[in-house]
Amino acid sequence: MRRSTYSSASYAAFRPSYPPALFNRVLAFHNANNNRPPNSGTLVDLGCGHGLIARALAPSFASVIALDPSAGMVEQARKLTTDQPRITIRHGSAEDLLSFIPGGHGSVDCVVAGQAAHWFDFTKVWPALARAVSQHGTLAFWGYKDHVVVGQPALGPIFDRFVYGREEPVPETESMARFWEQPGREILRGSYSQIVPPDADWEAVTRITWDPDPETGAGNLGDAPEGALWQRKTLKLGELESYVRTFSAFSGWQQAYPGRKSRKDGGEGDVVDLLFDEVVATVPEWKAKGEQGWRDIEVDTVWGTVILMARRR
Questions:
Q1: Which of 153, 266, 267, 278 is close enough to 217 for a disulfide, judged by CB 3.0 to 4.6 Å?
Q2: Is residue 2 one of the residues assigned to a domain?
């Protein structure tokens, strides 16, 4: 579950969005061997965040129920989701799914979770899904992790030291490593291999995974399986910095070191400031742009991805 101090507005502003190709892949799986009329049925979006997925998929269903355990995320989703009568946004968890389904058991046609399934307690979620999802209904869980700046292999070890390193990345500054909420982060980094749909209830289980190679600056782009390379963005370095500040681990780091203010907030610099000091210093052309100019430099950024889909027996 997300930390209570998590910035819902920053998450909405700086997290990468999902491309149409991802949604098309999920819908193609859902519609295969499915005799339901187009734009019918009920979709449930678990861990809906600011409502991006619910809004994108709403035209393909008659109704959408979007749940999130964070009151801040629910508030943000409602602000961003206007004039969408098909979508109902509720404050609730995946584990309590059955409490939010007005049609009763077997009334849900599709369940999705983007960047959320690694937080679920599947001892409760699998039984709830088995009761909620109709025969031949589908689920689709997806996530992204550990970005790589394409063509810049020297940056991989820097990000790793500051984000996951056990030692201080620079003197008197702790990394973000111990602040990742576990086991969720490792489940995501493991491409959801620990999330296994029970065979008694689910069939046609499909996994599409890919990890960019940080040692070559994602030199393995050409090896990505079809449908796996869906999280690739051109970002300004300043946007990448803002994205890193949405990490739950950074939120935890801030709570542990409240006196370490960012330079933007008038302090001497926090762990993200120091991280990007090293990132910028690694590329002479970036460093030459100066303290403000480097933030406008655009970089090709790609993330490791996973999609897990299954069909209800």
A1: 153
A2: no
Total domains, the chain: 1
The reply to whether 1 falls in a domain is no
Beta strand 202-210 with 298-312: parallel, antiparallel or unpaired?
antiparallel
Please report the pLDDT score of residue 2 as a whole number.
Answer: 45
pLDDT above 60: residue 1: no
More confident residue, 263 or 10: 263
pLDDT(72) > 70: yes
Q: Is residue 40 part of a domain?
A: yes
Percent of the chain with pLDDT over 70: 96
For 305, the domain range is 8-312
Task: Evaluate whether residue 274 is within a structural domain.
Answer: yes
43, 65 in Cβ contact below 8 A? yes
CATH of the domain at 62: 3.40.50.150
Confidence of residue 88 (pLDDT cuts 50, 70, 90): very high
With 0.90 as the threshold, say if the pTM is over it: yes
